[in-house]
């Protein structure tokens, strides 16, 4: 450990997890990037979904400086963030059967598109059904989840399955059950959750892989620039106009 205090220990734990994912999940990350590149090249659209804190890595790749312009957030009202009151409602909605199907049926997603589903545990009804229904509609599904939950916990979906069971590609975040990397004397509960750090890095790595794959095929990927650099707004305006039929966060 580079630092004995909790802050340093957390950095060490997060760095260790990132290294594990980089080394052990290189294949799935590349596969996910290639799948997104395939769909972008074919004129398809890209959607991302996450509930609760798993929505943070999803939001991080939508309308993002340095990001792929075609990524759209598939939002479930009340389950995207902690701005809903009470905040515990979001957790309850993750266990509601049938909600995912209703959201997908009224979304712009169509056969040939791709959906990335992010769920730390992958055990609740909402992410499981989101993946199941997306595949039934003819979408490709990429799952970002901790496989440890499928090995050490029970599914909360009636099928007994987890998110990982309904994906074309699964990237394992390696997060341990409980999502707390640290323990310390005088602190009764484990603390230091790293799932957001790792899942966000996975999402950015996948998008980078997709951009690289498109470039290798001779396709200039539609990337957004920062609006805080000179010419950024003009650049983004051109990209959003050119690909407007595949971008839904402007409507």
Task: Kindly describe this structure.
By secondary structure, the protein is an alpha/beta fold. It contains nine helices and seven strands. The protein has helices spanning 6-24, 26-41, 55-59, 88-93, 99-105, 125-136, 147-152, 195-216, 232-242; strands at residues 46-50, 71-73, 114-119, 140-145, 169-172, 182-184, 187-191. The chain has a five-stranded parallel sheet. Strands 6-7 form a two-stranded antiparallel sheet. Helix 2 packs across helix 8 and helix 5 crosses helix 6 (125-136). It is globular.
In brief:
This is UPF0309 protein RM609_16805. Pfam families: SIS_2. The chain has 251 residues and is α/β, with parallel strands linked by helices.
Blueprint (SSEs and pairs):
Layout: H1 6-24, H2 26-41, E1 46-50, H3 55-59, E2 71-73, H4 88-93, H5 99-105, E3 114-119, H6 125-136, E4 140-145, H7 147-152, E5 169-172, E6 182-184, E7 187-191, H8 195-216, H9 232-242
Parallel strand pairs: 1-2, 1-3, 3-4, 4-5
Antiparallel strand pairs: 6-7
């Amino acid at each position: 450990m580079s630092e004995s205090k909790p802050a340093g220990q957390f950095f060490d734990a997060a760095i260790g997890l990132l290294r594990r994912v980089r080394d052990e999940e290189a294949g799935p990350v590349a596969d996910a990037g290639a799948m997104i590149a395939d769909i972008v090249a074919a004129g398809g659209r890209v959607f991302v979904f996450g509930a609760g804190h798993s929505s943070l890595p999803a939001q991080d790749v939508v309308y993002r400086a340095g990001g792929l312009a075609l990524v759209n957030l598939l939002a479930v009202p009340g389950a995207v963030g902690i701005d809903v009151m009470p905040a515990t409602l979001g957790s309850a909605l993750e266990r509601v059967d049938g909600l995912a199907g209703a959201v997908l049926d009224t979304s712009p997603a169509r056969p040939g598109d791709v959906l990335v589903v992010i769920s730390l545990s992958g055990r609740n009804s909402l992410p499981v059904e989101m993946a199941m229904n997306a595949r039934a509609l003819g979408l490709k599904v990429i799952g970002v989840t901790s496989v440890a939950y499928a090995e050490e916990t029970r599914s909360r979906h009636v099928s007994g399955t987890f998110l990982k069971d309904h994906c074309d590609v699964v990237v394992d975040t390696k997060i341990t059950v409980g999502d707390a990397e640290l323990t310390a004397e005088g602190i009764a509960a484990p603390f230091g959750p790293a799932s957001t750090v790792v899942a966000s890095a996975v999402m950015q790595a996948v998008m980078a892989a997709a951009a690289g794959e498109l470039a290798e095929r001779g396709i200039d990927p539609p990337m957004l620039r920062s609006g805080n650099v000179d010419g950024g707004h003009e650049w983004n305006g051109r990209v959003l106009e050119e690909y407007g039929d595949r971008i839904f966060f402007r409507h």
